[in-house]
Write a structure and sequence with these properties.
The chain is α/β, with parallel strands linked by helices. About 35% of the residues lie in helices and about 25% in strands. Bound molecules: zinc ion (2 copies).
């Protein structure tokens, strides 16, 4: 046998032996890897301390009621300086907040845009996570338009048994009974202006404004300013002049987006499968959402520095679908544009004009 062929054979044998040894020892190896991952996730008691001063956005849910491997129910984490706020609590919100290495115990308040199920179906889990991780003696303050009391009453009721189990099992020092659940902070929007300042401090302002998601009334979006950086969350809405008004000059517009062309494929599929009620829903939802092109028109008119689509409808199971989803959006709005997925992280550092888009640092 040639010398070279012999060497190759020996390397092959050695690799096979190493692979067999790794397989044999896979339990201790994977446990060591898991330990490293857990240590990395839990290393910082205050994960916000390492972030640069500014506004940060984490997508803890970039999807809609549809199942989408990359996109959970609507949820946006906003870090303003060292303060953590959550906007909407769709399915998977609490889990994605943990995946982004944020501490649910640090959530100062939750803001809801409206009470469609996809925006609240992670609420119970999120309130529980925050309660235990904070060992909170005060329920989570939840801000939202009219109807909030009913929603919170329902969640607080549904979780009452679980509250009892947790306190009995872990003790009142970890699960203090009085801190369970959420407290409604309901706001009214004055008809004349359609907007209300909910929080006004020199460095931090949060404003709610009415959007158009009829027959869902009320439905709101939010504008958040921290120092010299600002962003708007559209909430669910058809193309809205209020979103355009509130977005004037902001650094980041997070806008919902629905593709009628791609959704029609689902509608036709349900229709052909003899599922007319679902086919009708696919048809109906088009008229109270915004297309990517319409959102791009708003972003261009408002002069925003960056546009991120969230609340993506329908699911996009293939990355090659992006151009079909966007249609002409990237031509209409020529600034930085992104189709959001869970875990996306956008940084607006204070005292700069930079927009950092990527994953959680
Ligand atoms: Zn929705
Ligand atoms: Zn909705």
């Amino acid at each position: 046998m040639q010398r070279r062929a012999k060497t190759v054979l020996w390397i092959g044998v050695l690799l096979a032996v190493a692979a067999a040894a790794a397989w044999w020892q896979r339990a201790p190896i994977t446990v060591a890897l898991m330990t490293r991952q857990v240590n990395a996730m839990t290393a910082a008691a205050d994960p916000l301390a390492a972030l640069p001063d500014g506004l940060h956005v984490g997508l803890c849910g970039a999807g809609s009621p549809f199942p989408d491997d990359q996109r959970s129910g609507p949820c946006t984490a906003v870090v303003a300086g060292r303060r953590l706020f959550i906007f909407d609590a769709g399915s998977g919100a609490g889990r994605n907040i943990a995946r982004m290495r944020l501490n649910a115990g640090q959530i100062e308040a939750l803001f809801l845009t409206h009470y469609h199920s996809d925006h609240i179906d992670g609420l119970g889990e999120l309130m529980l996570q925050r309660w235990i991780q904070r060992t909170s003696k005060e329920p989570l303050p939840v801000h939202g338009p009219a109807g909030l009391e009913k929603v919170l009453e329902g969640f607080n009721d549904a979780y009452t048994l679980d509250k009892g189990y947790r306190t009995a099992h872990h003790g009142a020092a970890v699960a203090p009974s009085e801190g369970f659940g959420g407290t409604p902070r309901t706001f009214e929007l004055p008809a004349a202006t359609g907007r209300k300042v909910l929080l006004a401090e020199p460095d931090l302002e949060i404003v709610a404004f009415a959007v158009d998601h009829g027959p869902v009334h009320p439905a709101v979006g939010y504008r958040i300013r921290y120092k010299d950086r600002s962003l708007v969350i559209s909430g669910d809405t058809r193309k809205s002049a209020a979103v355009a008004r509130e977005s004037q000059g902001v650094d980041l517009l997070l806008h919902e987006a629905l593709s009628p062309q791609l959704l029609a494929i689902l509608g036709q599929g349900f229709s052909q499968a003899g599922r007319p009620s679902l086919a009708k829903v696919m048809h109906d939802v088009v008229n109270y959402h915004t297309t990517p092109e319409e959102a791009a028109e708003i972003a261009r008119a408002a002069g925003v520095k960056a546009l991120v689509f969230n609340h993506i409808v329908p699911p996009l199971p293939l990355s090659g679908l992006d151009p079909a989803f966007l249609q002409r959006a990237a031509t209409i709005y020529t600034g930085p544009l992104r189709i959001g997925v869970d875990g996306d992280w956008i940084t607006l550092a204070a005292g700069s004009t930079s927009v950092g888009m990527g994953k959680r640092p």
